[in-house]
Write a structure and sequence with these properties.
The protein has 193 residues and is mainly alpha-helical. The chain starts with a helix and ends with a helix.
């Protein structure tokens, strides 16, 4: 019968293994995209046997879903002065993009693979729509206005963090907020065109 030490070490090893797998998967999906990333390469990067990846996540799709589990932690825009909504959202997204490699991996995979696109759509539906609903003046236009806002935020992220277009990458945060916030503000709160 195992002693207490064996029981406490096993979960720690399990947690460390899962963490290593997820880190390697995020890096590999970001670098190679969903199609080219392989379980073998991810396992090699994590310094484990590929069977361990399958043991914990069941499939490449399961691993991808776990690796790109994203909580955008969007601010409560209902608590933000109405005229500052665009600035708050753009600033928040810049903070996320600059501190979270998962979002870059998700964006890369989302533009090249159906599973990735579906994951982005889920995040949009579950996280961005409720935020837009809080500030949109016309309930029937919430989805459209949220999609337009997402187009700006994702477009910037694609240009700056994935494609690394020099002019976009060279922009200072203050410049990005100054350019992008009024557009996002208009999309979310302006009267119908």
């Amino acid at each position: 019968m195992p002693d207490r030490t064996d029981r406490t070490v096993s979960p720690r090893r399990s947690d460390a293994t899962r963490t290593a797998i997820l880190y390697a998967a995020r890096e590999r999906f970001a670098a190679d995209g969903y199609e080219r990333a392989t379980i073998r390469a991810i396992a090699r990067d994590a310094r484990i046997d590929p069977s361990m990846v399958m043991r914990y996540y069941g499939s490449k799709e399961g691993l991808f879903a776990a690796a790109v589990a994203v909580d955008l932690k969007l601010p409560d825009l209902g608590a933000v002065p109405r005229h500052e909504v665009g600035e708050a959202l753009v600033t928040h997204f810049l903070d996320l993009w600059e501190s979270n490699e998962v979002l870059t991996a998700l964006l890369r995979v989302g533009v090249t693979n159906q599973a990735g696109a579906e994951r982005v759509q889920d995040i949009f539906r579950d996280q961005l729509l409720p935020v837009a609903r809080a500030v949109c003046p016309d309930p029937e236009q919430v989805a459209t206005r949220a999609a337009l806002s997402a187009s700006q935020l994702l477009g910037l992220a694609l240009a700056r963090y994935v494609l690394r277009l020099a002019p976009a990458a060279a922009l200072h945060r203050r410049e990005i907020v100054a350019w992008l916030a009024p557009t996002v503000q208009r999309y979310l709160t302006a009267p119908n065109p």
